[in-house]
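In response to reviewer comment 3 from the previous cycle, which asked for concrete evidence that the modeling workflow produces usable outputs, we include below a single protein chain processed end to end. The sequence was submitted unchanged, and the resulting structure tokens are shown without manual editing.
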Amino acid sequence: MTRPDRVHIRIRFRKAGKIRFVSHRDVARLFERALRKVRLPVAYSEGFSPRPKLSFGLALSVAHESDAEYLDVELISEPDIESLPAALSDALPDGLDVTAVMVLEPGTVSLQQAITSCMWRIEVLGAPPDTVSAAVADALSASELWLERVRKGKSSTVDVRPTILELSVGGPTDHGTQLIAELATESTSLRPSELVVVLGIAGLTEGRVRRTHQWTTVDGVRSEPVSPPNPSTGHEQELLRAS
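The workflow returned the following structure tokens.
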């Protein structure tokens, strides 16, 4: 139950470089430690083993990078929000950088409920851009794209074509070809590695992957959970508040 006397904030952060090999669970632990280090007045659950009230957005696979990760935190009082991005970045290891913070309005939909799709830059290895472009064209023209999944020892086949909202070739990379994709997260979702599989090119494998956006849709309006910092300000961190 949400208490009216509590403050909820949403944190936007990057995950890049060597820290991409750290698991989602370990990232959560790093943030718990950073929140303690900056003395943020975090609310805790009740019971025998109290835990800080943190809620992350969609988990990011190990080895993937991101410009747009999110964390909601429940506080017992409002801290100095303006200095928080820089303070948290200093308390986190290299590669984890807080870029913006906003105070949430009461009744704001949770990250897990609100996020409807993600944008990705996916490097694929094993084929030149022209071959990948042909496979992308075939995928976009298909009415169905079937993918076999094995989960908990059980095999199932699902049509993942509806999850591919946008797909294009960004051009060559040093080691392969870059795809730019928007993949839905509701109902049936599709991982970047699975997208590489359904393209159907023999020998094609996933290279460097970066999540660039997570999109929410509230009352028919699409936006990011927290807007990125404004480059025109000349500052990497920027205070943002819900209007």
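The first strand starts at residue 7 and ends at 15. We consider this sufficient to address the reviewer's concern, and the full set will be provided in the supplementary archive.
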